[in-house]
Structure formats: C-alpha cells, structure tokens
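Deliverable D5.2: sample structural annotation.
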Amino acid sequence: MYISYNWLKDFVKIPSKIKPEEVATELTKHTVEIEGLIKQAEQFNKVVVGKVLEVKKHPNADRLRVTEVDVKKGKLTIVCGAPNVAVGQFVPVALVGAVLPNGLEIKAAEIRGEKSNGMICAEDELGLGKNHEGIIVLRADAKLGEPFAKYLKTDDIVLEVDNKSLSNRPDLWSHYGLAREVGAIFNLPLKPFDKILTKFEFPTSKESKLEVKVEDKELCPRYLAVKIENIEIKESPDWLKQRLIAVNQRPINNIVDLTNYVMLEVGQPLHAFSADKVKKIVVRRAAKQEIIETLDEKERLLNNEDLVITDGKKAVAIAGVMGGRDSEITPETKALVLEAANFQAVAIRRTSQKLGLRSESSMRFEKALDPELTLIGLKRFLALLKEICPNFKIASALIDIDNSQNKKLEVDLDLSWLTNKIGQEIPRAQVINILERLGFGVSDPKTEVLKVIVPSWRATKDISAREDLAEEVLRLYGYDNITSQLPVQTLNLPEVNQERLLERKIKNILALKHALTEAYSYSFVGEEQLKKLNIDFSGYLKLANPLNEGQTLLRQTLAPNLISSIKNNQYKEDNLGFFEIGTVFFNAPGNFKKEATGDSTLPYQEKHLGLALAGDDSDLLELAKGIINNIIQTVINYEVAVEFFPLEAVPGWSDKKTAAKIVLLGKEIGLVALVDRAVNENINLKKPIVIGELNFSLLTSLVLGLATTHFQEPPKYPPVVRDLAFVVNEKIMYNDLKKEIAQFNPLIKTVELFDIYAGDKLAKGLKSLAFHLTVQSEEKTLLAEEVDKLQSELVNRLAEKFEAKLRDF
C-alpha cells in the first residue's frame, strides 16, 4: 500500500523538524513496517518538457516518425512510433541516461538506420496510467525545458507500507487511519472527521426516487445509498489526479476518481452506478451459475456463496469486489447512485479468492471494516463532489439500512496485571494518555482496573481482550524502553525418557555389533498376506480407510512385514538380517487414553522388537538366540539368565519343532522360531528364515524395574573350577539341567555350558552337556575333599532326577 506524505499532513500537522524518514522509522517501530520512501521527483529524473519542432516519416519504417524536439538546452532527434505526435506539441521527453518508472533505461540508439537520442513518453512508460496508444500531450502553458516533475507538481514523498504488517488492522488501510497513528506516536493533534465533512440536506422519504432492499442482512450488515443528479463526467482536476498518481492509482474520470480518493483517504470503498441503468437496488446472494461481466470486461461465474448488487433482476456488481459493465459510469452519465456499504469480511474474501480477483475494495472489505465508516465515506464524497461538480443535486433520501448491531465494547485493564505482563511498571497517567491518543476512552481513570472503551474502528477485529490493550500500550510506550532481564525462575532438567534411551541402545547393538539393517514398515497388513503365512486374522482390527487392498488390517505381529523385507531382498545378498521396533495393535480396550476426555478410544497397543535372519547357515536359530541373549545381557549390565523353553502355541508361520519361547525373570517376553518350509514355498522364499520377536514394552518395564546395580568387594577366598560333562536323554532341556545345578548348593556360584555333544560315541537318543562350575566360599578356602564331596552329591542328585551320568571319554 502507498501513502502520500502530503496527504497525511492534511489531517495531522507534522512539524518541519520531523523529517519523513523519521516518520517512517517511528511507524515501523510502533505500528506497521514501512518498506521504503519514494520521492516522486526522483521518478522523473532526466525527464523534461520538450516541444516538437518537426515530424517526418521514417525512411525505412511506415509506422515510425523522425522528430526534432527542442528541450531548451538543445535540439534532439528522436524516433517516435506514436500516431498522435504532431508539430507544436509540448511533450515529456526522457533524455539519454534517464531510468523510467517502468525500469526502462534510455540510451542513444540507431533505429532502422536513424539515430535517436531520447524518447517521447506515453502514460504507461512514466507510471501515470496504462495507456500506450500515444504520447502524453502537455498543456500549452508548459514551460520549455522545465523538469517534468515540476510540471506535474510532484513534490510528494510516498511511504510504501508492507500489507502483511497491517492485515489485522482494518483502520490502517487509509490515510486518515495512518494519520491517527502518526498523531499518537508524535503526540500531535488529529483533525476530526467533522472538519472534513459537510452537512447536506437530504430529501424526505416521500420524495425519494430510489428503492433499496437488502435480502441477506448477515452478508451485508449496513447499506447506504443516495441518488445524485446534474453530474458532468469529465477529467478530474489536477489536485485529484496528482493525489491518485502519487499512490499508484490511474485517474479515469472525476466520479470514479473521487470514489477511489475517498476509499484511500478514509478507508471506505464506494461504488457509483449509472442511475439510468439502475432504477432499483436489491442486495442478495447470487443464483447458481449466475454470470456477470465485470468492469475488466471478463465474464465471472458465481454461486450461492457470492453476494451481488442487482437492479432487481440481474447482477450489476459483485458486492465488495468489482462493479459490472452494465452499470458503469460513462461520459453520457448525468445521474448516479452512490453506494457506501459494509459487507461480511469472510464472504468477500471467499468470493475474491474463488474468482482470482483482488481489488482495492476487496482487500479492505476482507479485513472487516467499521460499519460506521459507511456514513463518513458517503458524506466525504459529497463534500468533495461539491468542489468538482458544484451544481450537483441530491435527488433522493439517504437510504441507510443498518443491521450491524454494533455494541459498545468495554474491556477491563488491570494495571497490576499489566505490570506483571510487561515486567515493568508504566505510570497510570502514561497508560491512560497512550490509550486516549489512540482513540480509546477510559470511563473511570482513578480505579486500579481501568474501564477501557474500544472505538468502533478497532472493535471489528483486533481489540477484544486485555492482552490486546497491553500490546497497544506497549507498542506506543516503546519496546526499546523495556529493560531486558532474565526471568527469575528455577529451571529443571527435562525428565530423561528411559524407554527411548533403551530403544536407541538396542538399535545400536543390532546395527553396529550384529550388522543388522533397520527396517521401517507400515503398521498395516493384508488378508492375502496373512493367509499365505497361515495366520488367523479373524481377530485383527480392520481399517475404515485403507491405503490399498493389500493393507486393510492393523498388524498384531512384526513377523509378516519382516518376512516381506527378506523376500524383497533375497536376491541381493546371500545372508540377510533385518530388525524393526514398531507398534502392534489388538482388538481389546485401549491402554492409551485421550488427554481431554480420558476415554479409552484407541485400541490396545504394544511396542515390539522383531528381527529376521535369512541365509544358508544351518545354525540360524542359535544365531538368533545368541543375538537376543546378547541384547538383554548388554542392556541389563549384569548377569540375568535368558531362558528358552519349548513353545506350546506355535504361530501359523513357524516350524512346530523349531520354536521356543523367551523367558526373562520369570516372564515370557517373546519367541524365536524357524519359518516353516511350506510357508517358504507359499510366498516363494528361497532361503531359510528365523524370526525373533520380543514384547519391547514388557522388556522395558522389566529392565527399568530392576534394582540398581551395587558393586561389592570380591571374595577373599579363591574359587575352585570343575568341568563336568553329563550324558542325558536328548529330550532333557538344557535350562532344566542348568537350573538344578545352580540351585543345588549355595557354594556353586556360576554354571556355564561350554559344550554339547551327540556323536557316534554316544548311544542313540543321548547327548552330552558340559558345564564349567565355579565353587567358592565367602568364609574360607575350600579343601579338595569338600569340593569332591559336593560334586559327588551333585552327580547323585542329577542321576536321580534326570538319569544323568558323568561322561567317561
């Protein structure tokens, strides 16, 4: 948005000692971001008034002319393509070296064999409009050789405002709104609206020649209209055109220019309809598939969400966005209907976005304008119309349909709260002074809690709570005036997430020590996938909106996706290893609750750790068991037995003879099993696969529930180590034998299996298990006879319970 500095000074007298640069800086610090200052005179540097002395046809181009132009300091030859160039005209001439507002740099050139030393300019080339049909012809009283900026009387400075910084401030989309801010910042008096408005007598309703009806009061809270006669459509006076040009607006004619002028001055968009084309006004929603041709000569397709202004039958304008071609002001217009309305911000924004049509009006309406502005804008138009059309006549009563229901907004501001919020006390008198300078009222200034009355232009969108008032006080007081200090508060270290640390530790063990690849898979599986794995999916949860037909269920195990990872990579490596830590879901009441309601609306969930090994190694199962044992031993940090027992309920995908459950501290935490050969064939697997899966949630609770490790002094007395190999039936489980040995006598401190033998030296159905036994007393040095006696008793016990015999070879 562009703001004219001269225009601002119409409403607030800025002393000469305050320079425009300072105004821009202070506005940026307190209100909106000023992106730059544009000095109008600099836009036309090296552009002067010249006189056309001669015009000749270009010898090598039918559409070009070779002109001789006097610029007082000399005569220039300029090639010109404008059809309206003629001898005797005063014209703007851009000299060599000039850089025009459209970015064109003027250089000496040769055009079709003729030298050209400058350019005679058109409107669009100088940023004065969009016309490029011919050059600008200046008034006959123009002074030869004078700077073009002086001819235009462009001594203004334009402030370029960043639109994003005032999105929530509809009151700032005008010169008057920004003048109010300048006055508040520099503590300067602001000219009230009454000083720029003129009182007019409107005919009574009986004499009214205008009928207005608002059908949708929600989308159009307020609508004002008046009919005006004895209008002459002509070029705007210089002062009006200069103001519009300064803020990058193209002058059109006196009436259209005046509506734009009022919009830019007070912030209220206006629209003028040609009265001979609009006898009646009805404000309604558009019909489905309704079409209107707008002023830009494009047909727009509307629907029931759009608001339109109609003549009772067809649409003559898109409310708040753009007028229609059928009702536009033309040179033949002698009477007009002036509209000053207030529209719902959301509706205007929606229509503007849908049509891809953003106008100066729509940009203001979509910010939620003050309904009180409608009357101000209409009266300001009439006051200025008196200057440019002194013989105009008000031909109807003032139609004012007001459904805005504006209520007086009052917000409490507790000064002690304000001090705590800011962290620094601002004196009461200064707080009240700041609020009053900004247009707020204070009904009882002596109380601790101020009753602040919000002005109508701030009550539509951005002021509704005490926090908003705190921002107003603070921004005008100056953020730089607040002393910076660290908060006086004890900071505690964040709580350590032990589960996450354990997860990362296990991932590092699997990836770095055992060289397994981490897999990430969806939490979804498919019915066909589970059928091939012989998994019963009747209890699985079904997805309401699956990604595809192959992912319709929530998984209850990591095995299917790990097996798929092996299958997808089986031709790339001889030996493969994957692991995944992920969530599985069960059709049971949820163990996670919504924080807001506490309802168990989510299904029961567990985090699992799964690993899959594939290859030609015949000891895949032992390798998987070793990895699992290593994980648990490493994360627990001291000796805790990991036990493997026969698995009673074998998964459908598992080999029934090669499956074990994993037990830790008496709790079953998972399983390890070989994938059945028939399953391999079902899914076209080329390698044997072993799957291990642990309940990671249970493992975490067991690990974190263990007592803290305490170190103790090593025993003073030496240990005695005996190696014993027992021959037992092959059906005897290693864990059962080991547990019996460890529990036999307190002097037996450790039991470690170091060899398994089932060769031809043993009878069929037997196996040999060899153990290291560490025997040690904390009270004395054990004698050989004592250890021999313990060993003999142990052998007898194992013989009695397991029919075990000491191996003799």
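Annotation notes: Residues 239 and 571 are 83 Å apart (CA to CA). The longest helix spans residues 784-802.
The annotation will be released with the project's public dataset once the embargo ends.
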